[in-house]
Design a protein that fits this description.
Elements (H helix, E strand, L loop, with lengths): L1 H13 L1 E4 L5 H17 L9 E3 L8 E4 L2 H4 L1 H8 L4 H10 L3 E10 L8 E4 L1 H5 L1 E2 L3 E7 L5 H4 L1 E4 L10 E3 L7 E3 L5 H5 L1 E4 L6 E5 L4 E3 L10 E9 L3 E2 L1 H17 L4
Antiparallel strand pairs: 1-12, 2-3, 3-4, 4-14, 5-13, 6-15, 7-12, 7-14, 8-11, 8-13, 9-10
Length: 254
């Protein structure tokens, strides 16, 4: 309990926690096995609005998958099952009951994986209050050249930043004034080994570099939980998603 309390205090102070070996090698291998099954069997049935590729239509450049927990029972249990380690951690860190919202796959293919712009997840979530948590689970070792996740410690206490349109598929909005002294002084990068879990508050500023490795991908799962006390503005989020889908189709990105 003491260790758990220290973790909670770290999350409250920094807006993030870093947990190496959150999953064992065997557990990661099981996740990867089900991921391969999901890509082979489920992805062909999914709409293009939930399957993003670095090169439109080229599944060998798969970049992002959405709502995996809604489409597959195994991943549904992983994010929201009674024994989900992830859901239990989310409740501990947010200090209240949570609801699982989205399980995603993220990849930066070797040599072409694009940078993820600085942003706050809360901007996309349309929550009031913006009390949610995102987890990022490394499915393979991630060195700096593959595109590590970077954070600004304590930024969750600084309010919502000004976001504007970016050209990055899957991250259509980014912080326009990023680079202030507070950003740079408190920035930290997180190289990871397989099974390493990063968890951050929905208001924490974060980004990831592109993958410049010639032969190594950067595969991960993302898990999103909303605090039960937070309410979603369903109208604004639906309108935003419709507009985004239309723009991506017109641009030939999906």
């Amino acid at each position: 309990m003491q260790a758990a309390q220290e973790l909670i205090e770290e999350f409250d102070r920094d807006g993030l926690v870093s947990l190496p070996a959150f999953l064992s090698n065997d557990e990661v291998a099981e996740v990867r096995q089900h991921l391969e099954r999901f890509i082979a069997e489920v992805v062909p049935t999914m709409p293009d609005t939930e399957v993003y590729c670095e090169v439109s239509g080229d599944r060998s450049t798969l970049k992002q998958l959405q709502k995996m927990g809604d489409r597959d029972p195994w991943f549904g249990e992983l994010i929201g099952g009674e024994n989900s380690k992830f859901a239990q951690l989310a409740e501990s860190l947010l200090g209240e009951a949570v609801r699982p919202v989205n399980l995603q796959y993220f990849n930066k293919p070797a040599g072409i994986g694009q940078p993820t712009p600085p942003h706050q997840d809360g901007f996309y979530f349309h929550l009031k209050p913006s009390n949610a948590i995102t987890m990022w689970l490394a499915l393979e070792d991630v060195a700096p050249e593959q595109g590590c996740v970077n954070y600004v410690r304590g930024s969750h206490r600084m309010g919502m930043r000004w976001h504007g349109r970016t050209e990055t598929l899957g991250f259509s909005q980014g912080i326009m004034d990023f680079g202030a002294p507070n950003d740079l002084e408190n920035a930290e990068s997180f190289p990871c080994q397989s099974g390493h879990l990063l968890a951050h508050h929905s208001m924490t500023v974060h980004w990831a570099d592109g993958n410049v490795s010639a032969d190594r991908s950067r595969q991960a799962l993302g898990l999103v939980y909303f605090a039960e006390s937070s309410e979603v503005n369903e109208q604004t989020i639906a309108a935003y998603q419709r507009q985004l889908d239309q723009e991506l189709r017109l641009a030939g990105k999906i």
